[in-house]
Amino acid sequence: MRNVNTQSVTAAVKSTFKCDNERIEYLLNTLVDTVHNYTRETKLTHAEWREVIAFLTRAGDITDNERNEFVLLSDVLGLSSLVDMVNSPAGATESSVLGPFHIADSPALPIGGDLIGDNPGDQVVVYGTVRASDGKPLAGADLEIWQTADNGLYSNQDAQQSEFNLRCSQTTRADGQYGFTTVRPAPYTVPADGPVGTLLAATGRHPWRPSHLHFIVKADGYRSLVTELFPEDDPYLDEDAVFGVRESLILRYETCESLSGLPITFAAANRLKSPFYTVHFDFTLVPATT
After folding, report:
1. 109: Cβ–Cβ under 8 A, 6 or more apart, which residues?
2. Strand 113-114, strand 177-183: pairing
């Protein structure tokens, strides 16, 4: 190894990897190939290399239990979405980014339960069915749901909101149905006060995301799904800062004045302000072996 040069250094580094796990060794070898080839191709300077290290250091400094700047960096580079797409199985509802604002163990909400509470904003009835890829409704499927308030903030960003505001979990009933009432989520900006924000500004990009509802859907024997649903009239659909929009995840917020004909009884039926919106979306899961 004493005679490494710009070409042989790559093989020298890779020769030091002796992992018991073949997949880990493959990932490390490919990473070294990619980074070394990038450095040779771009003729990366010392100043540029130091700036990359400083950027990553700043990302580490700003990361805590409530905010992960490295996840945000992955998001705005499209890496999070690419990982989602590479791992989305055929026949299932498409996945989309988890985002940095998920909170585990949200309180359970009965089918037809209400998330509106005292939240301002347009009121929305959301309902649908969780199905297997053969169309069979999945009873007992678990959903986690979260969203921004009308001010574009999640509960863990806003001291004025309770911890689990506009968050819940639900278990589908025998016919696979889920449903709840809520307020229409607002578009919002990803955090832009850290190094990722500096990167966006330097490259002429804005930090806006279209409004969306987050879902995690799970059922025994099926692959878990992490996804988002987007309204068709949102102005940021074609310029999402984290590249999370998929055509199949765009839906229409229908204006309604009555709940007549819907398959679920909603607890807030008598409190809804007419007109309100309805949103219908069915999720499809595929077997865990897919």
Report:
1. 115, 168, 169, 170, 180
2. parallel
Q: Looking at residue 69, what DSSP letter applies?
A: H
Number of H helices, E strands in the chain: 6, 13
202/196 Cα distance (integer angstroms):
10
Distance CA 190, CA 27 (A): 30
In this predicted model, what pLDDT tens digit does every residue of 212-257 receive, in sequence order?
A: 999 999 999 999 999 999 999 999 999 999 999 999 999 999 999 9
Reduce the secondary structure of 17-54 to three states and give it as a string. Answer: CCCCCHHHHHHHHHHHHHHHHHHHHHCCCHHHHHHHHH
In terms of DSSP bridges, do strands 188-189 and 208-209 run parallel, antiparallel, or are they unpaired? antiparallel
CB-based contacts of 156, cutoff 8 Å, min separation 6: 66, 101, 103, 163
User: Phi and psi for 256 in degrees, rounded to 5?
Assistant: -135, 160
